[in-house]
Amino acid sequence: MSSEPPPPPLQPPTHQTSVGLLDTPRTRDRSPSPLRGNVVPSPLPTRRTRTFSATVRASQGPVYKGVCKCFCRSKGHGFITPADGGPDIFLHISDVEGEYVPVEGDEVTYKMCSIPPKNEKLQAVELVITHLAPGTKHETWSGHVISN
Question: Which stretches does the entry tag as region Disordered (predicted)?
Fold first, then answer.
């Protein structure tokens, strides 16, 4: 029996050159991705991303009436309940006309545009608040709060 201490356990290499990974410089061809540079494309259709033909079709369409179901200024979108019934309609902040931020219960008029890529759902465009909901506080886009 020997009184020698056991050998130390093997440690993994801590530097890439000691393993041989950086012996030859490699360049990697990358495809242009919208996610590079922290630029994430928005899935929400806005006035800026809508095609000209879709904008023209929407502006020539009929005017509908409805009630604002909900709208979140920080998220930039909400929904409208049509006056004639049917499913709720999406609303983006870029399509709100006028000086007030819509709140729940506001009566509105709007036109409709389909949402790409499948064009199965509808979006409200050219939204105008016709009657402010009574008993609620309304905020202007500049931040002034007005009690109604």
Answer: 1-47
Q: How many domains does one find in the chain?
A: 1
Q: Could you please report the per-residue DSSP string of the chain?
A: ---PPPPPPP---SSHHHHTTTSS---------TTGGG-PPPSS--TTTS-HHHHHHHHHS--EEEEEEEEETTTTEEEEEETT-SS-EEEEGGGB-SSB---TT-EEEEEEEEETTT--EEEEEEEEEEEPPTT-EEEBTTS-EEE-
Give the CATH number of the domain where residue 70 resides: 2.40.50.140
As a whole number, mean pLDDT of residues 71-90 equals 91
List pLDDT tens digits, range 93-142. 888 988 888 999 999 999 988 877 777 888 898 899 999 888 888 888 88
Which domain range does residue 139 map to?
A: 52-143
